Amino acid sequence: MKTQFYFLAFFICTTCLFSCEKDDIRDSYVGTYVGTETYTNNGRVYTRDTSITVTKSSNNESSIIISASFFKIAPDAVTVEVRNGKFSAAFTSLFDSATRTVNITNGLFSGQKISYSYSADGYVTTSVSATKL
Known about the structure:
Layout: H1 2-19, E1 31-41, E2 44-56, E3 63-67, E4 77-81, E5 86-95, E6 98-110, E7 113-120, E8 126-132
Antiparallel strand pairs: 1-2, 1-8, 2-3, 3-4, 5-6, 6-7, 7-8
């Protein structure tokens, strides 16, 4: 009888522990995305294929790491904080031997898609749109 009671108590406690575990929304963002980057310079439109990898940051429960080329105006991996599927960031980066202010704006996860814009010193804004593989 005691053994059954202990087993039942153990089962209930274990079930409560696992059912109380908090879901990590970042899991839905993690993955590889493919798409395009588009920008306009001197009236000409430039488009290129891009690949983006999203991983979870271990430093903050609401941050992710976006690994992409950023046309070499920013580090290959940028940490951003995501709130309700939206993100933005501003930081400085060394580009062409000068320190530039890089802004990532209009970041959005929507279903299996990621989109955002980025620019350095407000010069050329590049729009990115990609779909999760």
